[in-house]
Give the backbone structure.
Amino acid sequence: MRTPIRLLLLISAAVILGSCSSSKDEPLFFKSKRPAAEAEPPVKDVPADILSTQRAFSQVSKKVTPIVVNISTISRKKLVRPFPDLPPLFEEFFGGGPQTRRDKSLGSGFIISRDGFIVTNEHVVRDAESIRVKLSNDKVYEARVVGGDPKTDIAVIKIDAGDLPVAVLGDSDRLEAGQWAIAIGNPFGLERSMTVGIISATGRSNVGIESIENFIQTDASINPGNSGGPLLNIHGEVVGINTAIVAAGQGIGFAIPTNMARPIISQLVEKGKVTRAWLGVSIKPVTEEEARSLGLSKPAGVVIAAVQGDGPAAKGGIQAGDLVVAFGSTEVRDPSHLQQLVAVTRIGAAVPVVVLRGGRKITVTVRPGNADSASSTRRIEQEDSAR
């Protein structure tokens, strides 16, 4: 009489399981029952430098996350008039009078003082009716705006707290393309998210985001909600303030360098506003033809198109037609760069300015004045070279 096939299968399975339980070489799926100390990773020989880099990222996360905050705001914004050509009386009759809506938004920031001063982007808290700050320990505070600067998109807010962890600001002038870049923030409301990339470029201007631009470009993922959060180096130092992305691209984000932000932050904390310096000149970029006539290998610097008669530049000896090649200890790249350098200069400070005049380099000393006390026609501005 034949043994049923089902019985044979059961006997075979029992034999296999019995041999597995008595064997020293247990199947892979049984090894999870062993003590963790006996388990071996699939890859044993990971290069030491890779492990070291991984530890560095983990250390940065543990060190810096406590100084990063999540910011949520509620603002009231006026809607566009539905019937702009009608008098207000008729709009009210048709039920289309001026209306407003409440907008909620999210952003990030980082703590710069133990008593609760926090840096973020100006656009994060602009027109906010209420601001709530959530710390890494999940404590929530109401915040107030200390001051904001729309031209650089930097703002300082304050919470009533004490004994807080504080960010360490690094030297953004030492950044080079290819160095590690780490972003921590609140993208899409996902709290305390960390992304890693590199510094793609420095000194980005003419991007069309702010009036004064000198951005760090990075491919570390920056998304809505990261605005105002820190961009860090491998040491955990804040080297930039994340501020914008290129919506049509991937891996293109921008941050405000800390060295540019320092004087802005100081003024906002001390005075609640920013007072900028001015030279009293009109400027334009150097053309290819002008560069060749001056013996330059490529266009660089800024041409002085006109000088205000009683302005700081005129008093310092700058003349129309001069080519500014250095402001202070920094070589001038283009008009936007000079505008940025002047804007963050301390009013009244003696600044050496190197110009090319008549084929010779001349150094003059200029003391920038107060832009607030000058008329709008006296402030430094860029003149279109095509005119």
